[in-house]
O-fucosyltransferase family protein
Amino acid sequence: MKFQYLQTQSQRAAFAGIFVILLPNFLPNLFDPLGRAYPSMFSEWNAPSPKHIHLLEGALHQQISEKQQSDIWSPLANQGWKPCLDSATVPFDSEKSQGYIQVFLDGGLNQQRMGICDAVAVAKILNATLVIPHLEVNPVWQDSSSFTDIFDVDHFIDVLKNEVSIVKEVPSKYSWSTREYYGTGIRPTRIKTAPVHASANWYLENVLPMLNSHGIAAIAPFSHRLAFDNLPKEIQLLRCKVNFEALVFVPHIRTLGDTLLQRLRTSPTTKIKGENGNGNGKFIVLHLRFDKDMASHSACDFGGGKAEKLALAKYRQVIWQGRVVKTQFSNEELRHQGRCPLTPEEIGLSLRALGFNNDTRLYLASHKVYGGEARISTLRKMFPLMEDKKSIASEKERAQVEGKASLLAAVDYYVSMHTDIFISASPGNMHNAMLGYRAYRNMKTIRPNMVLLSQLFLNGTMEWSEFQQAVENGHKNRQGQIRVRKETQSIYTYPIPDCMCH
């Protein structure tokens, strides 16, 4: 009887386990395992504890010297380069336009910015009139924000009026040329085969004839559809002018951004040396690139245990159907190669090692963090003055951007443009965009040495002093020093020498 009882109990436990595993399949809305913007319920049930306790203890009790503080907060010295954007020698004559160019841009805010810059350049190459680019609904965040919701369209047109003709919408004779029209069949005015990083000649040979025949051409998709090399200097300068001068956010985004900047610099709780209460306090922006998409695509282990591994594996299989090359490597191999995004705990330890302490004002620029507050609790312990949009702006102040991922990202982008120091937890589009903008303005940006940091974190016996010294030494030349663009590299990430001159 006792054996039967134990067997029955064992069967019940097994059925209960299977039920918990299968329940999300029958009630997806309850668990939302595929919700890209939300942390996994499984990881929240198993909130990860700190993985590097010995380093955390050292970070919380470290003493920062005055020299360290002075070095880390000091602005970049003048490096001998300045913006150099005068490109048009003869104003554009709209009456000589070859026709109208439409582009449809996908991706997030930073990808769309690059696409807009390239679209202006292509219009210039073809001597065509550009229709304000159409922004596709973002499949990750389900954001339908348009160009005019994000960018000041009148400023955009005015800054570029001598370079290229731009109109807000197609003329009435082409009113049929819509996104819906191109989504319902093969159309003679749509180009779907524009190669990635196409040359100027490709556009002249393949798109110009279409303009001559139909008066209009639509290119979709258009992400990364113009090469970075072997283009006329005036085209390169034009791309820079669009990125750094023509694309500014709409007034209400700039107003909210300025409000955040003022509060970050004047908060009475900030104790950074040099704070005088008049808006001169210093702060850093940390772009915490740690959402569920990133975590699952990286194929790394982030310390959430078996439940988190299963949740990420399932998400990866459904979203990418297993097409994640990194899954062929073990977690240790990926970390040795520096291919695992830093967790909030790891980037926090890195910042403390660089000389930032618990008096440092830190602004968190990110969307939903995978794992929620539980995931960033250790980071908050190291930086108790950490803020984000919700903590320093009221619900009323955020009303025009709340629930709109592109507008929320634009606010973070604006604050990141003006911070004393910017750092991203892992390389990505935001990191690349800020690297380029802040190089253009000669502002400090710390580039994490992913290979070094990953290998340091794999060493489970390293003492804090050794870790701190290794991190500091490994980042001395990664704080905004000039890097000249190499062949095939992005002009938007490395604006020298194309956008700047001595």
Observations:
- Residues 34 and 315 are 6 Å apart (CA to CA).
- The first helix runs from residue 2 to 26.
- Confidence is low (pLDDT under 50) at residues 13-45, 268-279.
